[in-house]
Amino acid sequence: MFPSPVLNREIILSPLPRKIGKSEGKLAKQICKVVLDHFENQYSKELGDAWTTVREILTSPSCWQYAVLLNRFNYPFELEKDLHLKGYHTLSQGSFPNYPKSMKCYLSRTPGRIPSERHQVGNLKKYYLLNAASLLPVLALELRDGEKVLDLCAAPGGKSVALLQCACPGYLHCNEYDSLRFRWLRQTLESFIPQPLINVIKVSELDGRKMGDAQPEMFDKVLVDAPCSNDRSWLFSSDSQKASCRISQGRNLPLLQIELLRSAIKALRPGGTLVYSTCTLSKAENQDVIGEILSSHSNMVPADIKGIARTCSRDFTFAPTGQECGLLVIPGKGKAWGPMYVAKLKKSWSTGKW
Known about the structure:
The chain is α/β, with parallel strands linked by helices. It is built from 15 helices and 13 strands. The chain has helices spanning 5-9, 24-29, 33-47, 50-58, 77-85, 135-141, 158-166, 179-192, 195-198, 211-214, 231-234, 240-250, 253-267, 287-296, 306-311; strands at residues 67-70, 89-90, 105-107, 127-130, 148-151, 171-175, 201-204, 219-225, 268-278, 300-302, 317-319, 326-330, 340-347. The strands form two sheets. Strands 5, 6, 7, 8, 9, 10, 11, 12 and 13 form a nine-stranded mixed beta sheet that branches. It is globular, with a radius of gyration of 19 Å.
């Protein structure tokens, strides 16, 4: 029996970590010891010596960095000049063979963030604040104009917005099963996307595990930004008892992730591209999930994305995954992005086993 999608969506990341207190002392008091101990036990084994630095950054929100994704539909020219003056730089465009010129994301090597914009009906926002590593799944998908694309677990909408900065799809289906997050997704799209493009976007509230049966072989590209342990926000859980419960329930997350991927594979046309991503360091939710998919679906083949790690090392710190098709961004000093796992698969024309 699979875990409730609604229950597990509670522990998914929002586009930005929630605000914590101003002083480091206050920040430390809000760290959930139950979760930290759980991470210590798991990630010290999985990451080895790298965990020490990762732990330091994850437990110190004052060190976190925020990237600025500019909205090409209401381009902030003055803000762009200001970002240049403040020392921001663009995400390495040479890192991707088909990097979209229309997408501009600015990164800073120092902590801090510019103010968020408020939602105003009828007015498009000019920028979106995010963890820069969350753009890697979008870029790995390599969306082109006219393609049909599915964002299976789309809320809060940041990756859908980023996809539309890259290209103009023929059809974009944004799906979110959780009702509260579904409303958040709709508002995000309305805040960034002009009406003519909204008309080629479908927003649904379906169980993602059933999407493949509902729309078989419909899409050229599918993004599965799956429900996961969401290490950054989970570490600051305010209720230790609930945190303990979530640790226990989290052991079932790989089952849900595999079911979502199987549905995504059904929805993907032969020859199409599937990108899977999470915001957790957990091997069980990352490499092991993809390993299971590859071993049980002979029509899915890994796509080599190791080149991204080589060319993106200026901006991101990568940990070994043992997979050609998988990358793991871990927070590093001066590169406090992630966690973010990204895997890329292709669907061949042969029949897979289930």
